[in-house]
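Journal club prep — side note

Before the paper discussion, L.F. wants everyone to see what a predicted structure for a comparable chain looks like in token form. Sequence:
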Amino acid sequence: MSLRRFILKRILSLIPIMFGVSVITFGLFHLTPGDPVSQLVALNPDVSPAEEEQLRRRWGLSGPVWEQYLTWVSNVLVGDFGQELRTGREVSGIIATRLPETIALGLFGWVFALVIAIPTGIYAAVKKDQLGDTVSRFIALSGISIPNFWLGLMLILIFSLYLGLFPVLAPSRLPLYHPEMLWYLILPGITIGTAAAASIMRVMRTSMAEELNKEYVTAARAKGLPERQVILKHVLRNSLISVVTLAATLTAGIVAGSVVVEVVFNWPGLGYEFINAINQREINIVMAITLFTGLFVILANLAADIIYAILDPRIRYD
């Protein structure tokens, strides 16, 4: 199977997945008690039942769930994600405003994870069963075990309050690419990338250790190739297949973790907006962010499949 046909096949498989994500999310949201109209009525008991029903009809909340879903999905297919029910703001505008902050935070997390995990995993595999390997495994287990909200609070306490190296709150009214904003993103980036770095480091170490014991490595050494070339040119390439697969699955963890991290650091991204939308029962915002998050995770897995097929062409025929 050619690489182009392999990619096309994977893209077509995304359609039913996205449909399933939208159906499950929409259904679960409606299974929870309450809606925006109920909250408004609770805050204003003078609203009559007739006015309450009028609000439900105006906001499209009066029909059965399946009818509301069909209306919503038909609008999404033409690029209309609806409005925020309380303020009338366009949901697409909210997403466009919040998206750059979330992307910047995710990139910081990924850069931290990869810069730490890959060199450390290589070192641990080369120094297998030595002190460096033991220390790296302890650090990896600690990184996986520590909750990111607790880690974020500890980083704020130590590096912001005690040492004063980072601001406690994000600088306001500054562009995202401003040096002060980028400096502030270091702590949230470390918080969101620690668990991913720990997982990638463990897989990198295990994969490298397995590859180092294979016959082609022995043959390369017998030919007189430098050890550095054997590791970086031959062993590392084959070891990255497992790392790429894991990195795609960890994308979901980074996206999900951004919700908590953005609240801890008061970072105005999609995660922060998502929590507010859930509290206010803003279904259009919740659905739009959920759909976007699902799409992001699916595209990350698609990218992993493509890279996997490039690194190991045999996967195209499975």
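L.F.'s comment for the group: The mean pLDDT is 80. Keep this in mind when we get to the figures.
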